[in-house]
């Protein structure tokens, strides 16, 4: 499932290449035909991400809400601008004004697609297609895709916890700390609760808990205030890095060569995620895996006593 940094990068892609343009909206699959008709031909005015959800604002106060869920992905075709200087250098999106095809979901990669005819014909179950004269975005497999009004938008946002990519205020931090420490639920489950904090998924959960040397079974109400504020600060740092690079790089203290390897290969990128049965990089104890909040949780039973 795409985590917060991926959704913010997708929103930035729309900001670069769609905001300000009139957009033709269709539903090649047919399942979103009524919603597409509501916003077809309108100008896109804003692209915003909060946690794992994205909101595209069109004229007449119409918002397109998308939650990719586990299987959702966006395919971009045509003019695809670089999102950040780091992503351009890493080649995850490509140079500005370059015509190519890119898939953006949990990871990003360039697709082999014939763009000699533009726009390309939709392939497969495309829920919604957004098209300008130079850029096309196809959405597949989302959990949610709906047109909402400002009142409905406010209701959705009210249910979400703070997202440091959109709000790094003291109030946002305090809200996270209060919500986390108010519950007897295990901290490993609370970090996945989008009403507590928005954007953290399975990878960041495991890695943040290891970086904090915090047992995932610790009840939220037993997490100290200092520990909770340290978790927030770490999420601020990791989310910013993920948005800039497009990678969930959670190992720190790496030299230039090691960092290059980590960016190129997931096996060199994380402390515990997907390393079950392998020795902990710090203490040598075998990393264990269990199911928590319906997802696999990876942790070190020695470092995270």
TrEMBL record:
Its EC number is 4.2.99.18. It holds the Pfam family H2TH. Keywords: DNA damage, DNA repair, DNA-binding, Endonuclease, Glycosidase, Hydrolase, Lyase, Metal-binding, Multifunctional enzyme, Nuclease, Zinc, Zinc-finger. Its cofactor is Zn(2+). InterPro entries: FPG_cat (IPR012319), FPG_N (IPR035937), H2TH_FPG (IPR015886), Ribosomal_uS13-like_H2TH (IPR010979), Znf_DNA_glyclase/AP_lyase (IPR000214), Znf_FPG/IleRS (IPR010663). Gene3D superfamilies: 1.10.8.50, MutM-like, N-terminal. One of its GO terms (molecular function) is class I DNA-(apurinic or apyrimidinic site) endonuclease activity. CDD domains: AcNei1_N (cd08970). Residues 271-305 form the FPG-type domain. Belongs to the FPG family. This is DNA-(apurinic or apyrimidinic site) lyase. It comes from Subtercola frigoramans. The lineage of its organism: Bacteria, Bacillati, Actinomycetota, Actinomycetes, Micrococcales.
